[in-house]
Design brief:
Blueprint: H1 5-14, H2 17-32, H3 34-41, E1 50-51, E2 54-55, H4 58-81, H5 95-121, H6 131-135, H7 146-157, H8 162-185, H9 199-213, H10 219-236, H11 276-299, H12 309-335, H13 346-355, H14 360-371, H15 376-388, H16 392-403
Antiparallel strand pairs: 1-2
Helix pairs in contact: 2-3, 2-11, 4-8, 4-11, 5-8, 5-12, 7-8, 7-16, 8-14, 9-10, 12-13, 12-15, 13-16, 14-15
Length: 419
């Protein structure tokens, strides 16, 4: 039985089973016992203890503390992709996915406002619906669920394909924009953003740099000394702290070359034979992957009765806006001198753009910020649109088969270059 356990754990991680299970449990709980569900999610584990004015309930601990490590793991993959041999090295190769990220924001926002205008002109909303409140949802479809996007991208392209690095950088940058949107446009008016206090984040970066220059090989001081400083800076600036480790992880000593996405470094089981970056991911990834159950559970509890016009507006904005916006902007970037990474042509580009429409849990996160405490009905409708975007994964897998995009890095399969 002991020999089977690693295989079971690997299966659970490979197919994001904890995340999917968390969504299903949340939906069941929110529909069968909504009061009990909300009581659990907002359970104050440490009583009335607060941090920077925030109660330490389960929701805060998951979204503002646990997710720091999730984004840190994502930052590790991007950092290695920027090393020699990586699909984003030289750094000029990262320009195209970053431009595509802009398209992944502009496209959905454009479709959102166009669809909202059409829906209002068609009388889809109640006459008393406040236009200002309806428009608050524009930030929801800008998000991409990194965990599910990884899962679907691996299934579509195969392990090691450069399209996964491209999508990962796009998704992290995309979610960083989403968190910035929350801070700037959905912040608490009584606690506006204080950008000057981002200097505390710079202090955290300085500490990480000092550790790097001192050749500190353990990831622990970087994450638990420099990390909390950066986290505190974001909290003090009234910005979302989930990206705290994104500023710190690039300073962790890494291998001389990128070993490949999700590929183990050579060196056996002894941590001393691996880079600091590798040990950081290797020792935390199981905890993070399993912890995604709680993230999904805390954010995916939506009543099925709350399906309405905003549901379809959010879904259309994700699917149509992401696919067109990312494809168009990446194509434009390739035409002005920033080519797509090797082995990514138009077929791969359209497919990964569709995968980026997987908003799901991150879109749920933004929906709560957009409508939470303002309009419960709109919040529920928007969250249902975010949940339905999870079905995009099946469409992307089918599209990948149709376009024959699957193939590992360095394989012989041809791609159509944008023209």
């Amino acid at each position: 039985m002991a020999s089977e356990r690693p295989q079971l754990v690997s299966f659970l991680q490979e197919f994001s089973i904890p995340l999917i299970a968390g969504v299903l449990f949340a939906l069941a709980a929110a529909n069968l016992n909504p009061e009990g569900y909300h009581h659990v999610v907002h359970w104050k584990i440490f009583g009335d203890v607060t941090v920077f004015g925030h109660a330490l309930d389960l929701h805060f601990l998951i979204n503002d503390v646990f997710m720091v490590f999730f984004f840190g793991i994502a930052a590790k993959e991007i950092t290695e992709a920027c090393l020699p041999g990586g699909s984003l090295n030289p750094l000029r190769k990262a320009i195209n996915p970053l431009v595509a990220t802009i398209g992944g924001v502009v496209g959905p926002v454009t479709v959102f406002f166009a669809a909202l205008a059409l829906a209002r002109s068609a009388g889809a909303f109640d006459a008393g619906a406040d236009p200002e409140v309806l428009r608050r949802g524009w930030g929801i479809p800008t998000a991409t669920d990194i965990a599910l996007a990884w899962l679907v991208a691996r299934a579509v392209f195969g392990a090691g394909h450069p399209a996964i690095d491209f999508l990962l950088l796009l998704a992290v940058a995309d979610d960083a924009i989403g968190l910035a949107i929350i801070a700037v446009f959905y912040g608490d008016p009584s606690n506006p953003a204080r950008p000057l206090l981002l200097l505390v984040v710079l202090l955290g970066i300085a500490v990480a740099l000092a550790l790097r220059l001192a050749r500190v090989k353990s990831w622990v001081p970087y994450v638990f000394i420099a990390g909390p400083i950066a986290w505190s800076g974001l909290m003090l600036a009234h910005l979302h702290p989930a990206l705290a480790l994104v500023f710190i992880v690039p300073f962790l000593p890494g291998p001389e070359r990128d070993p490949g996405l999700f590929v183990e470094e050579d060196g056996g089981e002894d941590p001393a034979h691996h880079s600091t970056l590798h040990n950081f991911e290797h020792q935390l990834k199981l905890l993070v992957d399993m912890g995604l159950f709680f993230f999904a559970f805390a954010n995916a509890g939506v009543a099925f009765a709350e399906i309405g016009p905003m549901t379809w507006i959010v879904l259309a904005s994700l699917v149509v806006g992401k696919t067109i916006g990312i494809t168009l902007f990446a194509w434009i970037a390739s035409k002005i001198g920033f080519p797509l990474p090797e082995r990514i042509g138009m077929r791969e580009l359209v497919t990964l753009a569709l995968i980026a429409a997987l908003g799901l849990t991150v879109a749920l996160f933004v929906a709560g910020a957009a409508y939470g405490g303002i309009d419960a009905s709109m919040e529920g409708q928007a969250k249902m649109g975010a949940l339905f975007s999870g079905l995009v994964g099946f469409a992307a897998i089918a599209l990948g088969v149709l376009l024959r995009v699957r193939g590992g890095r360095g394989g012989s399969q041809a791609s159509d270059e944008p023209s």
